Amino acid sequence: MRGRGIPALTALGRDRASGFLKPRVDQIRRWDLLPSLCLACLVLFGVLFYVWQHIQVVRLGYEIERLQVERLALIRQENELRFEVARLKSLRRVEEIGRRQLGLTSPVAGQVILLQ
Amino acid sequence: MPTQHNKRTRRASSLQTDVKPSSDLRGRHRRRMIVLFLSLAAALAIISGRLFSLQVHQHPKLVEAANRQYRRLVPLVSRRGTIYDRNGREFVGSLRVSSIFAQPPQVENRERAASDLAKALDLPSQKVLERLKSDKPFVWIKRRVSPEEATAVSQLGLRGIASIAESKRFYPKQELGAHLLGFVGMDDRGLEGLELQYDDCLAGKPKWVVREQDALGRPIFREEAGEAQGCDLYLTIDEVIQYVTERELEAAVAKSQASSGTAIVMDPLTGEILALANYPTFNPNHYAEASSFARRNRAVADYYEPGSAFKIVVGAAALEERLVRPGDRLNGEDGAIEVGGITIHDHERFGIITFSEMLAHSSNVGAIKVGMRLGKSLYYDYISGFGFGNLTGIDLPGETPGRIRRPKDWSALSLASLSIGQELSVTPLQMLVAVSAVANGGTLVRPYVARLVKAADGRVVRQGSPVQLRRVITEGTARTLTNILKGVVTDGTGKAAAVQGFEVAGKTGTSQKLERATGRYSRQKVVASFVGFIPAEQPRLAIIVVIDEPKILQWGGSIAAPTFREIARESLKYLRISPAAGGPFRLAEGMLGAASRLN
């Protein structure tokens, strides 16, 4: 009897009294927290997705830059080769090779027949 | 009982004391909560204030600072446009090469570095050392080095020595078309020829692109801009005809031991220049090693007295004015005539000759007599009409209009002198344009070299097209004169210009050069020339060959005419023009219409 009336008035009593209600309250709160948890997960997922996408973009940026440098180098190389071909096809050089190395001569009149 | 009462009393009092501290605690908790709330509110207010300051007040400044940190404006060096011949064969292009520079304050052990660099770059060691000892923060060691040299320097790994990419103009055909193409300076700007004429377009505009970079300065993104590039130029020049012209001209200069020579090939109907050559010439890849004389485009920048070749003009004027007919007889005066107290001789003694024979055999006496019939004013009008004394308007720099005095300044001898191509100076190009007017039926056309100017994106910026300046003689006169000029090659002084299977119309010229020191005509120094067109009845090519100061083979007919023949023969063969393709000449319908509108 001693502990029934008085404890309700003391802090200890209040704690004890609230101890009886605790499991029920926790159950209710757990269900209440679910939407919040879902929302938090969604937000977290969104943030992670944003960060992942940003990292991907940066990574691709490095890759694009590397490929662009490679592309420019290839264009330059192609340009150099084109001019090397032009140099090698120089008529003076070709004629010299034809005359000196291959023993070719210009055709004289009568040796040229034009087909119309 | 008292004891029990006392106990109760004590308990009650203890209860009283228990209740009292509990309310204090609650008050204290509340105060703490209030303090905590206020602290948090204050902290939140401070953070909000700071955020407001950063996001609103300092926003522009901070955005700019951030952009500065990770966005960089980088220049794209513009690649100078390519020059092609009329068939799209590269004449000139630009290559990306390295230039070596030094930052002298950063260079360690300069003597050693200078020695290594000199060895790698084939430079005098002392010269490199002088540059490395410079007080300047930046000095060039060697610009536009070969890839091998750049690699050698890179392998040295010297501190304070680095390379930078630059554009280098490259002329793969070397001397071919050098005077037409010109060259560029160290700053990649045109200094001569087409490089100068179309410099703004060829050079293009420098491009700037935004580049994003990370904290280490590594590029992440760059705006898609490709390479900055100038316009491409497509010429009317044909590489093969240009080569043949240069080859034959060089051979003629060597054969006659001349000081120089010029040859031009043009389409007389359209004014398209197919070849333009001067000898001596130079290699534009090493233009600094050539003399200014070799670099000079004498085809448009130098003038000469055309001599007998100018009789075409006096003949055209007299025929047009109906002052003479091809069969009219002229007295050759046995090869000499006195005008203004001066006796002018012929190269051989002529008796009675026809007007056609006068031109075919190049009689000075006959030409002077025809000139006299024309009179000063009329003759001057025709000279001007054919374009002498004015620029032809070709798209090449440095063109000179030549020299022709006005009739009021003429002496008693001037009309006679002008009738035989003296007392005036013309450029080889002017002479060719005038003869082209005879070839195409009487219309003066403007010569041009750039057929097409294309932007880097393929857009056509400028298109060269035939321009008829004016009609100078009627088609009938042109036809009559053509027949007479054919006689020059079949029976006259220009026999060496004959091309088997084709009819050639043309005129030789051999003029004495004026000695500047004495003011008299030289007996040794002459200019030998031949100007004509082929096939005579349906002209495809107008060609002029001018040989300056030949020491042997001094006549136009003996050195310039054979050169004309070789250039014409090879060019016709290359163009697949057969003798069977001949026929009556006529201008294209469009050109005739345009010419009549101009009249």
Short structural summary:
Chain A is mainly alpha-helical. Chain A has helices at residues 2-5, 11-88, 91-101. The longest helix of chain A is centred in the middle third of the chain and has 78 residues, at 11-88.
Textual characterization of the structure:
The complex is a heterodimer of chains A (116) and B (599). With 116 residues, chain A is mostly helical. Chain A has one domain (2-100). Chain A has helices spanning 2-5, 11-88, 91-101. With 599 residues, chain B is α+β, with helices and mostly antiparallel strands. Chain B has two domains: 74-235, Penicillin-binding protein 2a (Domain 2), CATH 3.90.1310; 239-284 and 295-598, 3-Layer(aba) Sandwich (Beta-lactamase). Chain B contains 20 helices and 21 strands. In chain B, strand 16 (450-454) and strand 17 (460-463) form a beta hairpin. Chain B is elongated, with a radius of gyration of 42 Å. The termini of chain B are far apart.
Q: Kindly estimate the percentage of residues of chain A that lie in beta strands according to DSSP.
A: under 5%
| SS element count, helices of chain A | 3
Structural class of chain B: alpha+beta
Q: What about the largest sheet of chain B?
A: 7 strands, mixed
pLDDT < 50 runs, ≥5 residues of chain B? 12-17, 582-599
Q: Tally the structural domains of chain A.
A: 1
- Based on CA atoms alone, the radius of gyration of chain A comes out at 46 Å
- The N- and C-terminal alpha carbons of chain A lie at a distance of 134 Å
Q: Got a strand count of chain B?
A: 21
- Share in helix of chain A: over 70%
What gyration radius of chain B follows from the Cα positions, in whole Å? 42 Å
Overall geometry of chain A comes to rod-shaped
What do we call the CATH homologous superfamily of the largest domain in chain B? DD-peptidase/beta-lactamase superfamily
What is the overall number of helices of chain B?
Answer: 20
Number of domains of chain B: 2
Terminal-residue CA separation of chain B:
152 Å
Mean pLDDT of chain B: 87
Average pLDDT over all residues of chain A: 78
Structural class of chain A: mainly alpha
